[in-house]
């Protein structure tokens, strides 16, 4: 476990200099959306922010010297990969916490209802699954080639994360009342819903880790 944390800390050191360039512009856009009244778009942007954050270690590790340093540490390949996934999970936890607090507040003051909470939660789950799909791609092809392939992977999730909340909440197309009522019924069974979502994320994360491990093991220097 100590070696996993060491790799996690190494990732944090790698991104320390470049993270401000990745954070500043998206953070400004997110704040503008929130304060301009586009709450749904702002929350969606926070979830999409996770996909941006997830790629930073791969971007900063793109040079050959940095890559060799990862393999030179006296640790197992599984610990190296696990450290990178620990970074992803930590970033996801922080962003989900921020989004969760905002959504909980909006739900408390009745600006959000069950349906809105479900849709935003779906966007969050989709963003994390997208990251799980991307990681093996980056390990296999590297940042440059992997980025081109990943664009195809997250085009649809990006459309759903950004477009779905705005379409459902702001277009006025709530004629699908039966559908909404069904989702509200699902929301009333919140424990079951949380367990299903957690199971899906665990399976997706574990499969992503296994594939990434096998790829890195075959590339071991």
TrEMBL record:
Under Pfam families, the record lists: ABC2_membrane_5 (PF13346)
Transmembrane segment boundaries: 21-40, 46-64, 85-106, 118-139, 151-169, 189-211
Which keywords, in A-to-Z order, does the entry hold? Membrane, Transmembrane, Transmembrane helix
Q: What protein name applies here? A: ABC-2 transporter permease
């Amino acid at each position: 476990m100590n070696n996993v944390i060491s790799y996690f800390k190494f990732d944090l050191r790698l991104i320390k200099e470049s993270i401000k360039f990745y954070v500043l512009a998206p953070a400004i856009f997110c704040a503008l959306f929130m304060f301009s009244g586009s709450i749904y778009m702002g929350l969606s942007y926070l979830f999409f922010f996770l996909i941006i954050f997830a790629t930073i270690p791969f971007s900063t590790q793109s040079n050959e010297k940095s890559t060799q340093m990862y393999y030179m540490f006296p640790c197992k390949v599984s610990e190296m990969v696990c450290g990178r996934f620990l970074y992803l999970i930590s970033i996801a936890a922080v962003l989900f916490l921020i989004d969760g607090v905002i959504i909980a507040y909006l739900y408390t003051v009745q600006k959000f209802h069950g349906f809105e909470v479900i849709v935003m939660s779906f966007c969050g789950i989709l963003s994390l699954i997208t990251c799980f799909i991307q990681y093996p791609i980056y390990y296999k092809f590297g940042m440059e080639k992997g980025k081109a392939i990943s664009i195809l992977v997250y085009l649809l999730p990006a459309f759903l994360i950004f477009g779905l909340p705005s379409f459902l909440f702001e277009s006025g197309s709530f004629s699908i009342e039966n559908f909404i009522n069904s989702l509200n019924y699902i929301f009333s069974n919140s424990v079951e819903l949380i367990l299903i979502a957690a199971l899906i994320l665990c399976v997706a994360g574990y499969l992503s880790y296994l594939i990434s491990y096998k790829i890195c093991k075959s590339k071991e220097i």
